[in-house]
Design brief:
Layout lengths: L12 H25 L3 H8 L10 H13 L1 H8 L12 H14 L11 H15 L4 H16 L1 H4 L10
Helix pairs in contact: 1-2, 1-3, 1-5, 3-5, 4-5, 5-6, 5-7, 6-7
């Protein structure tokens, strides 16, 4: 079976996955910065772009996550609150940033341009909590994001493989 031709410089599936993971890392940093110090999303994104590793990230995805999560912050906080064991404002800024981003991603249809299957969103949130959060923060994040996914992606969760069935 012949291999599909790939244009020079184009990212393969592995590179795209790494670029999106790196984008989520930058997005956590951006939302964290906003939670701690405030500021305008585009100023925060401009600051993130100065990092040496930013070129490894999917820049459009970083912008979508940071700008979207900040723009929807009040709505996301109100939506998440029933799934939390404490007020949203009592969460550590790292956990709150990760939960805001995961909530924002979950509310985006998985087949949309920047969408991802719910299992990917949960896994990425847990990995980000392990990277940036406290010792057991990833366990808390896992439990909350799983409940958020159940609330907004119930149909997807019931399909084999975690993806909606194409009609």
């Amino acid at each position: 079976m012949p291999r599909a031709e790939r244009r020079p410089g184009s990212a393969g599936p592995g590179k795209a996955r790494v670029a999106r993971h790196k984008a989520r890392e930058f997005a956590v940093q951006g939302v964290y910065q906003w939670l701690v110090a405030g500021g305008e999303p585009w100023d925060i994104i401009r600051h993130l772009r100065e990092s040496d590793e930013y070129e490894l990230a999917d820049a459009a995805f970083v912008e979508r996550l940071v700008a979207g999560a900040i723009a929807d912050a009040d709505e996301l906080s109100a939506w998440m609150q029933p799934f939390l064991d404490r007020p949203v404002n009592a969460l550590s800024p790292v956990e709150r940033a990760i939960l805001m981003l995961a909530g924002f991603e979950l509310r985006t249809a998985p087949e949309a341009e920047f969408g991802a299957p719910y299992r990917v969103v949960i896994n990425e949130a847990v990995e980000l909590a392990k990277l940036f959060g406290g010792t057991d923060g990833h366990k808390y994040v896992n439990g909350v994001v799983d409940k958020l996914a159940g609330a907004v992606r119930a149909d997807e969760r019931t399909q084999p493989g975690g993806r909606p069935v194409q009609e």
